């Protein structure tokens, strides 16, 4: 606590220019970097100690154990670098080359989802290994039921009760998933930032029970949805949340329509609307419920929902509740979508052939298991012709894509208001929880009154709202009423080599859109840190993606996507990959996903890149993948001739990112 | 020319020979040849027929399954030009109809709290001072507890805010596990699981267990979240009269009879009801219900969203009030957002029940876990309830104070249980007296029971209240009370989306954070407002 106060104090007394110098390039610093003489507090020695106390060391650790290479940056910061973040939460990186812009180059095609097939022997052996697992499972069940009936009692009808979960229904869980349970539901503690602390556990009985050993392991976290690195216990956003708890308490005490609304809700909704560029927005306290409780208010009987086959479970849940008809189209396949539209509009409703009341096309901006980007330009073309309504679920893409972080519309430079409904969550890029739906005022008011959440679900808690407001405002930058023009010039000064074209809606948030008790530190308030986070995320995403491809792996998804799936295929390799990544000197935790979340044969590991990762972190991941990939025979992408070695990949990162 | 033709024929002969030898090398080829020969039997017609059969089989196999409705009998073939015309012709309805005047006024009248919500909040656009908040859920006054705020801030400084992941993928924090243990211990259940939103909890718990073909017997007055859970489960539903255990028993008997008649297999069977009903504050007779469910071999899914944290000596809910072990309730669902002024919901039950949800609860699996500081706030809330039973005593005392004043009013009827922390008030018609579905169905002996397959009770056709008029009246009461400094609310409903339209009501939510005197004063204001508006 005291450490933190000290840091906050030094932060507030430090001139803005010192922060700027830290974030700008070395030569820029040489021009205006006279900060050390002006602020003796930031001399070399004190800067190093302050960073080792405030931004490197944290929690209760008294000595720095850097054996895993995670606690300290690879080199000590020099006098020109001032970091305001804790390295384990948000990595220190001041090299301005390691930045990129996330945007679509007009005229280039949007890659559809491509399934890259592995060699046949991989496919065949994958099928065979599932076959073996299934056969073994049935044999064990057969024998088990006869020799250990006690262990099967809960799966059998018992005393007039049908089993909660029959042995047939739970076969997959018991016989396949249990084998790899160590990859799932790993409990953690602390901030889900650049690194995360695992609560070590072992299983004495083949994953039926997990026992905690009481120790902790810090691991490089390339699994959390922390795209912009706002999962932080220190810094401007956390300070704002602390203030909000003192000011507003922890709970809103009720639903929005029945006494749970606060001024903070109103303010946050206005800011969200401004952020995504829509007229109005509503906020819901849970991301899943944002879809499941509001889609039924949009469509109903006589309406048709056209849904991408890989849409998230919450969308399916909501559509099922709505009672509307549903048709699916092949993932991101615009040709199939058009054919389907022509069919359903010409045929009308089934049997009666009456025209559909409305047609709602539901797509996601960025698909969480594939990393594909929706082909929004093509959908907008179709929308003009076929007059359907468009709902884009930006759960993963908002904040993570686009030169201004405003999501997939920003990425493709499509005016957001040409889309009918933009939905997104705060769990991912904003380090908060819950979700929003944005659209025109009439629509959002209708959802406030007709959506299930309005009268029945608890309103979002004030601390969560504050995290949303603070993180969004720091991405947008806050325009002080008197300093509108100087603010825009300072942001261009900050990024001299990355010009952004003039863009219609993303303007800084007016100071009036923040509660008076929030005071963001200067780097957050002027948007410079937000911008640098966007650029770092874009760099890291492209680098990891292209690096893996160059190393010879099969990956899915768009290069700009912070979600990078790497194909493993075999069920056995998922386990091994997870374990081998975790068991390194610098432990890395990964998410492995297999059937039923993916098709049977395309088991994969899914990396989620964050702005909090440094280039060295991505190097570490690539290096680990390279070694593990050789052992597990995972390199089936590029031919051996086109591949690069790991050292070459790390050295030529900039080239890869600009591919 | 001829030489090239020769080489070609030689090559053909060579490759044919090779093919032939290769074919004979395939295991089983001899069998095939023998079969074709024997089936040919010098009858080319027969071979031809078989070839057609094979071709047909291959054709059927290649037919895509998704194209079935294209070739269905309702499919009309259009030319491309016709389709273009139809596309041009089609005009969709607007996505959302603008709000009407009543809805606009309702939305504008929603009270907006400035700063901390609590027993005496400051409201936006409200000149007069609020002397009591009887609208927000702050039953045990946990919302204002400094200790909870301190613990929340400590947690924030250790965990940040969001968990940035679903529970399966590094979203399970130690504080989540601690809260699950706290809830299980508090209730006396074997285990518990937490969901990140109270409202979504039960609509996820139900489909995790109830599948197509299973049988659900549910109360006609269950809340909206349960209705949605039942809808998504696709199970067979039978309804019993609101809070009427006799009707429940009849329905259970009829289900059993039906099963015996059809000789159906043994399927999972559930009774779904609420502890204290969100719709009207009625309370179930838990011991009787439990006796019944054991006798009929049903599992019980009990929604204690309102009763958890508000009734019982220390707020453990109905199980404490009736002194029934929580382990006898198979799935006990509650809300930390309502009962503990934190966030999220939980389901408590046996380890088996909890493990099952960790893989099958849709909004558990597919949603990010709840923020750490909300989990810690909930744990702290439990600790406070556990250690200071006086809070609950005070809440019950306040409820009694309110009920004594309200029960005397003849312009309203109160369907809520005397111990319920929420008090619903209906407009009472001067002529018809008590006419609430609960009291109506249990009070008057019906010659015929309601149809269990229909959610509407038998007497639904006799319901003579005018929803719009009553809502308008009650809204006037709400505004009148607010003018005098007491914040209350109508029970907001999704008209047209609920399975049974609930009768319009004003819902008071009592709190232990006000003194008995303050409650008395506030309720007097409310009854004044009621009298003035309803007797006009």
Explain what the structure shows.
The complex is a heterodimer of chains A (659) and B (536). Chain A is α/β, with parallel strands linked by helices and 659 residues long. Chain A has 3 domains: 1-84, no CATH class; 104-221 and 527-659, Aspartate Aminotransferase, domain 1 (Alpha-Beta Complex); 237-513, Type I PLP-dependent aspartate aminotransferase-like (Major domain) (Aspartate Aminotransferase, domain 2, 3-Layer(aba) Sandwich), CATH 3.40.640.10. In chain A, 40% of the residues lie in helices and 12% in strands. In chain A, the strands form 4 sheets. Chain A has a 7-stranded mixed β-sheet with strand order 4-10-9-8-7-5-6, sandwiched between helices. Chain A has a 4-stranded mixed β-sheet with strand order 1-2-3-14. In chain A, strand 8, helix 15 (408-411) and strand 9 form a beta-alpha-beta unit. In chain A, helix 8 (236-248) runs antiparallel to helix 18 and helix 13 (334-347) packs parallel to helix 14 (376-386). The longest helix of chain A has 28 residues, at 120-147. Chain A is globular and about 70 Å long. Chain A starts with a helix and ends with a helix. Mean pLDDT of chain A is 85; it is low at 1-54, 56-62 and 483-503. Chain B is an alpha/beta fold and 536 residues long. Chain B has 2 domains: 101-142 and 390-534, Alpha-Beta Complex (Aspartate Aminotransferase, domain 1), CATH 3.90.1150.10; 146-387, Type I PLP-dependent aspartate aminotransferase-like (Major domain) (Aspartate Aminotransferase, domain 2). Chain B has helices at 2-25, 29-40, 44-62, 68-71, 80-89, 101-108, 146-159, 167-171, 174-187, 198-209, 224-233, 245-262, 286-296, 318-321, 336-339, 351-360, 362-365, 372-387, 390-407, 437-443, 467-483, 516-534, and strands at 113-114, 122-123, 132-133, 191-195, 215-219, 236-240, 269-274, 299-303, 331-335, 345-349, 412-413, 422-427, 486-487, 489-490, 506-509. In chain B, the strands form 4 sheets. A 7-stranded mixed β-sheet of chain B has the order 4-10-9-8-7-5-6, with helices on both faces. Chain B is elongated and about 120 Å long. Chain B starts with a helix and ends with a helix. In chain B, 49% of the residues are buried. Residues 432-444 of chain B have low confidence and may be disordered. The interface between A and B is large, with 128 and 118 residues.
